[in-house]
Amino acid sequence: MRALYAAATGMAAQELNVQVISNNIANLRTTGYKRQQVHFQDLLYQNLRRSGSSTSDQNTMLPAGLALGSGVKTTSTARAMSQGPLAQTEKDYDVAIRGEGLFRVRLPDGRTAYSRDGSFDLDAQGQMVTRDGYLLDPGVTVPNTATSVTISATGAVQATMPGQTAPQALGQFQLARFVNKVGLESIGDNLFVETAASGPAITGLPGSEGFGNLQQRYLEEANVNAVTEISSLIAAQRAYEMNSKVVTAADQMLSTTSQMFRG
What pTM value is reported for the model? Predict the structure, then answer.
């Protein structure tokens, strides 16, 4: 019976939907996390009678056809790359992006990754790194004699040195953006890498056209809305239960038919 297969695809789709929702809720407090959304499509149809087909020699046509669907499939788990709220941290090396753009991070294998997580620290050499020790790209090194460090809205990094009245320039933040940022591949650790779907990175300075600016001592929180996720979870649970009831009903109908043939 077709209903069994169609309902089974619906249950599988809602199970995956719950997995995505649970991941969003789990990352509710993850810095720079972008929530995922599941997109569905219906499966192929078997056209038993096509719309517009002839019904007589007098050129009468069917106004509506007879088509049987075969269920649902999951097409993507796209990320909503909207801005998350900013939270004040009071840490000198915490930086949030307001607007478009991602930080550039140099991975140990030489690749460049991208992130909205601006929770940076210094390594033993004074280089600005991520929480996992990956270098900011381009690199910024802070002298160990610096008394304070400022990061401007346009990404200029300056330090106040003992005995100097004018601040010393240390480096410049660069941001990257993509034509299709939804096409970026997430590799964990709050990092993305470019793909053929995202297109190549477009780099620029914070505050320039098409790029957001920076805010020191702030971090961008996840763009996950707890109320929305719980509502989606309830809806997914109800859809799963309805599909399971279809399986039960179809099984009972098949059982009845089988008993009729036995009789």
Answer: 0.84
